[in-house]
Amino acid sequence: MKKVLFTLALAVALPLSAQQKPVYLDTAKPLEERVEDVLGRLTLKEKIALIHAQSKFSSAGVPRLGIPETWTTDGPHGIRPEVLWDEWNQAGWTNDSCVAYPALTCLAATWNPEMSMLYGKSIGEEARYRNKNMLLGPGVNIYRTPLNGRNFEYMGEDPYLAAHMVVPYIQGVQQNGVAACVKHFALNNQEINRHSLNVVVDDRALYEIYLPAFKAAVQQGKAWAIMGAYNLYKGQHCCHNEYLLNNILKSEWGFDGVVVSDWGGTHDTDEAIANGLDMEFGTGTDGLAKGTNNAYDNYHLAMPYLERIQKGKVGTKELDDKVRRVLRLAFRTTMSEGRPYGSMLSPEHYAAARRIGEEGIVLLKNANGLLPIDLNKTKKIAVVGENAVKMMTVGGGSSSLKVQREISPLDGIRQRVGDKAEVVYVRGYVGDASGEYNGVVTGQNLEDNRSPEELIAEAVEAAADADYVIFIGGLNKSAGQDSEDSDRKGLELSYGQDNVISALAKATKNLVVVNISGNAIAMPWVNEVPAIVQDWYIGSEAGDALASILMGDVNPSGKLPFTFPVKLEDVPAHSLGEYVGERNRQVQDVKYNESIFVGYRWTDKQKKVKPLFPFGHGLSYTTFAYGKPTADSKTMSADGALTVKVTVKNTGTRAGQEVVQLYISDKKSSLPRPVKELKGFRKVKLAPGEEKEIAFTIDKEALSFFDDVQYAWIAEPGKFEAIIAASATDIKGVVSFELN
Ligand code: GLC
Fold first, then answer.
1. Cβ of residue 263 lying under 6 Å from some atom of ligand 1
2. Mean pLDDT, rounded, for 432-450
């Protein structure tokens, strides 16, 4: 009795609000308690409403309980303009322009996790300010073929680099109370036939190459969302795939967030129910993903699911698991305590975009120190090429943006040069004069009907008396170039650019070629051109970042996140593996016969095949000298660690940054292994003459391979080498050790 009285008294004593505040609204309560509290309050229809879209990019909340809706937004490089409720086209708002950050290949090319954190924080602030609680990015699909139209959205060919560069990006985004939705899980490595290819790949390649970046995103990055890929694996669409979603992602890796379908990636109600899909977006009720009148009740996880439950065909166990995950998303984002307010178009965001661009640009070649341009000795600079002026933030698919500004390479060079020298511009070639995507237009008029001969003659003439000639070309965001839902047909540049470059190489010895792309290209003129710069899609600050590098304000420090092959046949996906380049709709296999030998893992094994430019390659305006690497022991025990040290010295006359790379080579293994694999990297700043010691501590994880018979990661005792390098082919030192 006493207890009852006491409880009663307590209830009366507490202020009304505290007494009535439900658990789910009490931010002091543990997340799982808040989830369970809501779950117990929901009707069946409210549960169903939470797990599928209500508009093109949003899904319902629970109005009755004050649970907000989920609003997703593309993409990995900037916040997409608002669209109409049920349309792909933009809605024509006037306050949804954004900052375009560099494409993720550029971020990967910085080899600097601090840049990833800066990137994620900045883009997360823009998503937050626009009241989006899920960013549909970053993408970390591995660069298997240089033809893949979406490589520019991803982080290169190496799983270790991609894993270490994606984690801080996710953390930076999620600090804003916005979920990162890491995509496309998994094996979406080409765009042509992306909806119908059934990827056939051995478990070693799956675990050693294609999954690590996603695993790191989940286990280190703590990503709150993962997006299923369009393609199939083991005959099931990845958006509802038992192996990838239930077995690996949720069971093995312990993922507790939401699996979101790609837009139109859901094809089967029963699989969607049972195989781990939590939120269905973009489904066309007539089976197409492009319908403008999707009847959202006809989604697989809508009425069809509700009817199966009502008829007793399925229970509600899977439904409650999906709903728990959606509620976790709400409590981590829209309903999280102390959530920041975000910001947009701020000077800090522009500075971040520029800095990431400047750290990502790669100096591929610089014969006789042609670069940087010394304006005190320069009277005239001729800039040649369509990519010097063409906007690159519009187009390319779902990562297309409506920017507040985009500084073109030509504008950046002109602004930087000022009146110190004359800058002339000639077109050089005509590529794609169009510029519109989903209703966003560039407003540029790039029409030019002159013949290639006329354009080349004009370029050669402009080059004749110029102190520097800067050709700016490469790919663009049009179909068949670097663009979603399409792949390139070959490695070669389009629009006759090679002819322009060769003609210019004959006209001047001071030729700089700037390649703007998210993919490797063939360079038949590589020996005729003294300086080559790999520029990326850098976004709003493209021109300023490039000009800083060309004029030497910033010392280039980028390194390639993927191999530049000489020709397509040098790529194992095209010589050994299968690549299905002809469009068709029926489901068919694509066999990854090359297995784990992707990128430098392949070229290292070839005696004759040498890369045009290797993975990890990038020059500087200064020089670096490496000491002899040492290890703190000659042996490592299975549960021990080993520290490898090496000194790096700036032996040049200006400050710079070097990326010290650690590769591990297993000298004898029971299963085939690559010659070496990246297992560590460190970007280090050095003043002229300054020397620093870098230490890498490795454990058996760095020595392991995935044994698909034992279905486990194995480190076999025996001889290993720790290889210190400045690229996959520029070995600076080797130290041997034994694993006991
Ligand atoms: C697209 C893309 C995906 C994007 C989604 C929404 O088809 O594959 O990356 O986030 O649909 O636009």
1. yes
2. 95
CB of residue 398 inside a 6 A radius of ligand 1 = yes
pLDDT digits (tens, 9 = 90+) for 396-414: 999 999 999 999 999 999 9
Q: What pTM was estimated for this model as a whole?
A: 0.96
Burial of residue 290 (number of CB atoms within 10 Å: 0-12, 13-18, 19+): exposed
Determine contact, residues 468/551, Cβ cutoff 8 Å. no
Q: How far is the CA of 360 from the centre of ligand 1 (A)?
A: 25
Ligand 1 centroid–CA 136 distance in Å is 8
Q: How many C-beta atoms surround the C-beta of residue 308 within 10 A?
A: 16
Cα→Cα distances 666→230, 266, 682, 719, 735, Å: 36, 42, 22, 7, 12
Q: Which of 502, 552, 521, 540 is nearest to 656 (CA)?
A: 552
Q: What is the pLDDT of residues 76-105, one digit of tens each?
A: 999 999 999 988 989 999 999 999 999 999
Q: Which of 398, 437, 440, 486 to mutate to test the pocket of ligand 1 (most atoms within 8 A of CB)?
A: 398
Contact (Cβ atoms closer than 8 angstroms) between residue 618 and residue 558 = yes
Q: Among residues 54, 52, 53, 333, which one has the least CA distance to residue 180?
A: 333
15 close to 56: Cβ distance less than 8 angstroms:
no
Residue closest by Cα to atom 12 of ligand 1:
398
Handedness of CA 300, 88, 185, 595 (dihedral sign): positive
What is the three-class DSSP state of 714? strand
Query: Which one of 74, 96, 158, 262 is the catalytic residue?
Result: 262
- 262 tagged catalytic: yes
pLDDT digits (tens, 9 = 90+) for 224-255: 999 999 999 999 999 999 999 999 999 999 99
What would the mean pLDDT of 546-560 be, rounded to a whole number? 98
Asked whether 136 lines ligand 1 (CB < 6 A), one says yes
Indicate if ligand 1 lies below 6 Å from the C-beta of 280: no
pLDDT of residue 540 exceeding 90, the answer is: yes
> 97 CA distance to ligand 1 centroid (A)?
19
Residue 328 gets the label, from left (phi > 0), alpha (psi -120 to 50) or beta, of alpha
CA-nearest residue for atom 7, ligand 1, is 263
Residue 689 identity: G
The pLDDT value recorded for residue 16 is: 46
CB 74 near ligand 1, within 6 Å: yes
**Whether the CB of 262 sits within 6 Å of ligand 1:** yes
Shortest-distance atom of ligand 1 to CA 265: 7
SS3 readout for 329-361:
HHHHCCCCCCCCCCCCCCHHHHHHHHHHHHHHC
Does the pLDDT of residue 295 top 90, yes or no? no
> 315-345, pLDDT tens digit by residue?
999 999 999 999 999 999 999 999 999 999 9
Residue 265 tokens, joined = 């990636």
pLDDT at 189 over 60: yes
The rounded Å distance from CA 169 to ligand 1 centre is 19
pLDDT in tens, 11-36: 455 554 456 789 999 989 999 999 99
**583-602: pLDDT as tens digits:** 998 999 999 999 999 999 99
Which residue owns the Cα nearest ligand 1 atom 11?
A: 263
Helix/strand/coil (H, E, C) string of 393-450? CCCCCCCCCCECCCCCHHHHHHHHHCCCCEEEEECCCCCCCCCEECCEECCCCCCCCC
pLDDT score of 1 more than 60: no
CA-to-CA distance for 226 and 258, rounded, in angstroms? Answer: 6
What is the Cα 192 distance to its own chain's centre? 19
